[in-house]
Write a structure and sequence with these properties.
By secondary structure, the chain is an alpha/beta fold. 49% of the residues lie in helices and 12% in strands.
């Protein structure tokens, strides 16, 4: 029984040691990510403050020039020049104050962040040292337990001791004259002799393999435990969607509880463009009869700061059919290394707001906010432009597909939205705006590319690039294999909020052999877009 207790304590000790070391690793990694993310956010705020200071100084310079402007030797009155001097002085003072306080505050914040980081590192290091000390101390105590069980000295009932050797493994311990150091070393040697093969196997093989497994698949563990640490968002209010080509628009509006307008609203379709030429072609052909103005903004930078060509400009001749209704704009990337990609994405969406104003959008016009691969159906937009009293904002529930229209993805697609535009209020964004969700309103075909190179480009370019945890994720053969299987390019578990949904959606996506209710332009040009239809998973290398 003593030996069983010893072995049990040994295994429990090893388990505790592994858990403690794992905690140290998580703490150290977590503090690094926290420090980097917070520092990048601080740098962004400081950069914005510097930009404001620079603009204030530019205004000050312009005022200096204005003072010197003269027409036919006639200059500004002295009182106006005095007012300009006062304004210039206030602007310079404001700019200097902002710059000084920005520098001081950023330095203070960085000092605090560095102190917090140092504290976390010290805590992790101390935990690691204590873990090793506890490891050896624990085994020392276990050796005492084992040594006691095989003690050479047996106490007699009358109080006298009788020297009786019961085991020759720890014979060095039996000597009464042994020093404390010798006694400790002897017990340690006894302990190591007493550890069986299973314990060595656990320490030398199983523990390292467990650590490697956590490193490789830790994100899966985190995803699977998501229901424990993340509260699901509030549910949408589903708006039933009625449609049939043989039902009049008046009756369709009535079925939705809306009135009918005397004339349709104007519709603006605005998108940020990366490199999805085929999806844009299908989208614009689907929406062409109903859209007043197509608005497209393109940057020479991806969200992650990678340089890219103007793909739309290269292929503009393929979109001549929308040219009379097209407002096309470009914006230069900022190319900030290490910056959170969502910052660049937000920067480009703000620029798209400006482009919409240039396109002439007005109050109560309909604005479609969605990515290029989130395609509202034409009849949905026609319904919303003709019906009166529709909600100010509606999210669109889109049938979700992955890689092509062969793999139906259970993950709900709701980010596309339609807004009744309000000047000064409506902002172009790609997040949740309202609780209302119009059912079955189109298609979302994610990662639906013709060439393998486009898959690689998007994986490195879009906002969730951090999901590319290993370089072999970008291997073309691996990508092609996953496309045909309907697997996950990032080797992730389903992003759900309940264990039932996570377990139910494990594995590859089911194949669908239906091409019913797809965009009409896609079916009319099936030969050209064959790779998007069921049964055609092979991609071109590109």
């Amino acid at each position: 029984s003593a030996y069983l207790s010893y072995v049990t304590l040994s295994y429990l000790l090893i388990l505790f040691i592994v858990a403690a070391k794992t905690g140290c690793v998580i703490l150290y990694t977590g503090q690094g990510k926290f420090h980097d993310t917070t520092t990048k956010t601080l740098e962004y705020v400081v950069d914005q403050a510097d930009t404001i200071v620079e603009k204030l100084r530019n205004v000050s310079s312009y005022l200096v020039v204005v003072k010197q402007v003269g027409v036919d030797q006639v200059f500004l009155p002295s009182n106006v020049q005095t007012d300009i001097d006062q304004i210039q002085s206030k602007i310079n003072s404001s700019g200097s104050t902002l710059a000084t306080r920005t520098v001081d505050n950023s330095k203070d914040i960085k000092d605090i962040l560095d102190s917090v980081r140092l504290a976390f590192i010290i805590v992790a290091a101390v935990m690691l040292v204590l873990t090793f000390l506890g490891f050896f101390r624990g085994f020392y105590c276990c050796s005492l337990l084992w040594g006691d069980s095989i003690s050479c000295v047996l106490m007699m009932p009358d109080g006298y001791s009788s020297s009786k050797k019961t085991d020759d493994v720890c014979e060095d311990v039996c000597g009464q004259q042994a020093t404390r150091v010798a006694l400790t070393l002897s017990r340690l040697r006894c302990m190591l002799r007493g550890v069986d093969l299973k314990t060595y196997l656990c320490v030398l093989v199983i523990v390292p393999l467990t650590m490697v497994g956590i490193y490789l698949h830790g994100h899966k563990i985190s995803s699977f435990l998501r229901p424990l640490w993340q509260v699901p968002p509030r549910p949408f209010i589903n708006v039933p969607h009625y449609y049939h080509p043989n039902v009049s628009m008046e009756n369709l509006c009535k079925l939705h509880g809306w009135g009918i307008r005397e004339f349709p609203r104007r519709v603006f379709d605005a998108v940020l463009f990366n490199n999805e030429v085929d999806m844009l072609t299908i989208r614009w052909n689907e929406l062409y009869p109903y859209v007043t103005q197509f608005v497209l903004l393109e940057s020479n930078s991806t969200f992650t700061g990678l340089p890219k060509p103007h793909f739309f400009a290269r292929n503009r001749n393929d979109f001549k059919f929308v040219e009379p209704r097209l407002t096309y704009g470009t914006i230069g990337g900022r190319f900030r290394k290490g910056e959170n990609p969502f910052v660049e994405e937000a920067y480009q969406r703000v620029a798209l707001d400006q482009l919409l104003r240039i396109a002439g959008i007005q109050d109560d016009d309909l604005l479609i906010m969605s990515d290029v691969d989130e395609i509202p159906s034409g009849h949905t937009i026609d319904l919303l432009r003709w019906c009166d009293d529709i909600p100010p904002i509606l999210h669109l529930h889109l049938r979700n597909y992955l890689y092509s229209f062969e793999f139906i993805w259970a993950h709900r697609s709701w980010r596309a939205s339609v807004h009744r535009y309000r000047m000064g209020k409506t902002r172009y964004a790609h997040y949740r705006h309202t609780d209302f969700l119009l059912s079955d309103s189109g298609w979302h075909c994610s990662f639906c590319f013709r060439h393998i190179s486009d898959f690689v480009f998007k994986m490195k370019a879009y906002s969730h690039y951090d999901r590319v945890r290993f370089s072999h994720y970008l291997n073309p053969k691996r990508i092609q294999n996953i496309i045909c299987k309907g697997g996950d390019l990032y080797d992730m578990l389903p992003e759900e909020y309940t264990f039932k949904e996570i377990i139910g959606n494990l594995g590859t996506l089911p194949h669908s052999f239906s091409a019913v209710h797809l965009p009409s332009y896609l079916l009319k040009n099936a030969d050209k877009y064959k790779y998007l239809l069921p049964g055609n998973c092979r991609r071109e290398s590109g």
